[in-house]
Amino acid sequence: MVTRRNFLKGSAVLAGTLPFARTFSALAAGSDTLVAVSSQTVNSLDLHRTGTNRASYQIAVNCYDRLVSFGSKPAEGGGLSYDYSTIVPELAESWTFSEDGMTITFKLKSDAVFNDGSKVTAADVKWSFDRAVSVGGFPTVQMKAGGFTRPEQFEAIDDETFVVKLDQASKLSLPDLAVPVPFIINSKVAKENATTDDPWAMEYLHTHTIGSGAYSVTRWDAGQQVVFERNDKWVGGPTPPVRRVIMREVPSAATSRALIERGDVQVAFDIPDKDAAELAGKVTVHSTPIENCIHALCLNTKFEPFQDPDVRKAIAFAVPYEAIFNAAAYGRGAPLWGGEPKATDIAWPRKSPYDTDLEKAKEHMAKSGFADGFETKLSISTDLSSWMEPAALLIQEAVGKLGIKVEIEKIPGANWRTAALVEKRLDFHLENFGGWLNTPDYYFFWAYQEGHLFNSSNYSNAEVEQLTNETLHMAMDDPEYAPKIMRMIDIVHEDLPRIPLWQPALNVALNGAGGYEFWFHRQLDIRGLTTVES
Fold first, then answer.
1. Fewest CB atoms less than 10 Å from the CB: which of 205, 260, 418, 488?
2. Over the stretch 460-493, which tens digit does the pLDDT of each residue have?
3. Structural domain boundaries in the chain
4. How many CA atoms within 13 Å lie on the side-chain side of 149?
5. Is domain 293-503 in CATH 3.40.640.10, yes or no?
6. DSSP 207-265
7. Residue 133 burial by CB count (10 A; 0-12/13-18/19+): exposed, middle or buried?
8. CA 80, 84, 86, 92 torsion: positive or negative?
9. What are the counts of helices (DSSP H) followed by strands (DSSP E) for the chain?
């Protein structure tokens, strides 16, 4: 368990125990270019931009530094995984907490430079943090999770000393600085390209990377590819073995599979579960369970039928969970149905108390205000069609037995985030959310608090709001923590704004590459990748 006490103890000695050793193959010494494929569409180079999708997180991860990062550990099933319990230096050389845990002082690495060769200073860190808490939307809410809400909390003491002042000590503050959002931007270049109407240079950073990270984007062909070139002056970690990485967008899973099997590409990222199972033994396949992540069926409470609790329960009992798990997940991951009626611990994700029971479904439908059924659309993303489409077809058939007529709507991946999460306009849809900070209260903060990005169901419950706020910064060993978390779990299982389906795994195939490491943000970290003989 990670608590504020653990962080204070470790940070007071040294802000950065060495992570599990990353080893690079000797064969990578003369490596030049690695090609990876993914079905996901990068729609911006700026994570802070409204509507930037999850595929674009990889830009912030690989092209920018954060003050700190997470360590590494052996992953379940082989390879490496990030280690949530260990915080290590990235741009910061060290850090210390004040006795009350309310002030964090960071010392920056003196030799850190941006990709244009200019020195990284504490003033750049402050400007970047000011931007993150001020632009609104996803980045601002993410910063809030760690207790960072306004520019007045950040101070550049000198070029290499940066101070953060918290309103309350929190178990999430330091880990929240290791997620992709608080990335450090070359503020001089940004200001030169800002305008009165665009003070944070959103338009410029949409198409340019101006960081101190391991790579820079030298070419972005929207909908086709992103080309990364190594920054040989990077001091945030070991020098990346590969000079150039080309990430190509290949919407067809069959094409990606053929490319990786033939060795035409070295990495196929986020491949379908079926392909992962069938490719194992032919190429290297890593399948890593995604912590704090749930594939869910979401019911938008702004849609009148879904305001009826009996309609929501009818659908929950109608869902053919096992058939979906076999057809969409290919049996990989962890089932999240058929659990106990009430939570008895704080394990998360956990099985909901619902299972497939058509008779119970019909009883709830008959009691509802929509006993004769209704019509709606079930929306899915084309970027995630490998699991969403088979799941949607089975759900369409199942709820049809309740008189609910469903049309499946396919939304392009580049538009999905805006429709589902920003505008929250999809009445009935499939969605997945994985909490970056591995605590149940953090998941609730994003998925069940009113107005927050991943609350695509527009759910609002005053008690859940209060309990989430009370537990978010609370130490996990506080005696009040577990009872509050269990109460939150019981409420959302009763209210059902999102119906859990299963906890997914992230599948990555390698052929002629090594050094893959799983990360909570579910994007490809190219910094440790190597090219090896097939």
1. 418
2. 999 999 999 999 999 999 999 999 999 999 999 9
3. 26-267+509-531, 293-503
4. 6
5. no
6. H-----SSEEEEEEETTTEEEEEE-TT--SSSPPS-SEEEEEE---HHHHHHHHHHTSS
7. buried
8. positive
9. 17, 22
